[in-house]
Amino acid sequence: MSRCPHLARCLSPALALAILSWTAAGCAPAAKPKDQPQDKPKASAGADAADHDHDHGDHAHPETLAEGITELETTAKDIASKLAAGSQEAADDALHAAGHLLEDLEGLMEKQQDLSAEARAAGKQALAELFECFDKLDTAMHAGAAEAKETVVDVHTSVKDRIAAALTSLTDTFSKEAK
Description:
The chain has helices spanning 5-10, 15-25, 65-84, 88-111, 117-142, 152-178. By secondary structure, the chain is mainly alpha-helical. Helix 3 (65-84) runs antiparallel to helix 4, helix 3 runs antiparallel to helix 6 (152-178) and helix 4 (88-111) runs antiparallel to helix 5 (117-142). The protein is elongated and about 50 Å long.
């Protein structure tokens, strides 16, 4: 069984569905049983309860596209360095964090009303590319020895230029939009 069963769902090929549903979903903590004191609801966009199979309370959420992109760039470098050092478990944790960041970036992009149609399309395309690349890494990371066609390092080598290009596209697109 995979160590990170949620990442495959976070990085599913059904990216279009995720983009469409993100604006309504947000990140909400799991509901507490009725016999426990309930937290007061926080007033924020996307505070509606979401049917996630994981708890988003275990990671910080970027507040801006620029912050999220910078954090994703750092996480992508972290994945690469941990794989190069032979620390697949640590790379898996970073890969899981990248999946959450991609979800966060989708939400931030959808919330930003002043984005041009061109910027929105370029952002969606770059995020789709990142989802696909990180999903390939996750699949390789959790493949059993009999299922593995390539090592995780080989898969990373095959997608690292695509990851870099998609990150550059996000940076370029949203730095232009900020001007």
